[in-house]
Design goal:
Length: about 240
């Protein structure tokens, strides 16, 4: 029998800075809850809305695997490795902060907000060489197929993360029947986290709406059901 931990969107830490509206699933910055310090290798899941033309000025990170998943809008990135990119819906950016990196992130749109998830994974080793990657998954996501976004270097995913994590995404499309299922098979001892990005998603007997997350322990997998327009991220983590 699986054990689950539900993190409702309405229970997250929330700050409205005017230019930035942000929700924290786990403790981050000014938000601290000793009961919400992460899940497995997941340390941060922030859902942000960045106002047009606004953003985060240059700042530094170390020893963290940082993923950016844009839902609406466009986010412009520059960092101290010389990398530069604009991330749009369907694209994923990964930044290995490693031994140290400085970067800035700004909404590339002047009048419309950009909506995104920023995800931090604890690395399995510190002090690695910083690295930037950006991959467009739009075509596969729009096909309705589950997509392996990121995995350890030996996992063969388009994006590499230096941790025992697989990051998957699934977009339910109009060509699928209502209530279409995604049966995700896991392995003994692995942890799963499902984050509802859009719409309503049923995970087993648990109903998630956008912003909700659920951690699954002691499970051989998870079944996700949803209608067209729904979207989810799934993290598989192991030691």
């Amino acid at each position: 029998m699986s054990k689950i931990l539900i993190r409702k969107a309405t229970e997250r830490g929330h700050f409205d800075h005017g230019w930035l509206k942000t929700y924290h699933s786990f403790s981050f910055g000014e938000y601290f809850d000793p009961e919400q310090m992460g899940f497995g290798h997941l340390r941060v899941i922030n859902e942000d809305w960045v106002a047009g033309g606004e953003g985060f000025p240059t700042h530094g990170h170390r020893d963290m695997e940082i993923l950016t998943y844009v839902i609406e809008g466009a986010l412009e990135h520059r960092d101290s490795t010389g990398s530069h990119g604009v991330i749009r819906p369907g694209e994923v950016q990964k930044m290995s902060a490693g031994s140290g990196i400085r970067h800035s992130e700004f909404n590339a749109l002047k009048t419309e907000s950009t909506h995104l998830y920023q995800i931090w994974l604890l690395p399995r080793e510190n002090g690695i060489k910083p690295k930037y990657e950006q991959v467009d998954f739009t075509a596969t996501l729009n096909s309705g197929s589950p997509v392996l976004l990121a995995a350890p270097p030996e996992g063969g995913a388009p994006i590499e993360v230096h941790q025992n994590v697989e990051v998957w995404a699934k977009r339910w499309t109009p060509q699928e029947k209502p209530g279409a299922r995604w049966d995700f098979k896991s392995t003994p001892g692995a942890l799963l986290w499902v984050q509802a990005v859009k719409g309503q998603i049923k995970v087993g007997e648990t109903i998630l709406t956008a912003g909700d997350g659920v951690g699954i322990l002691e499970s051989k997998g998870a079944t996700l059901e949803a209608k067209s327009g729904a979207e989810a991220l799934l993290f598989k983590m192991w030691k």
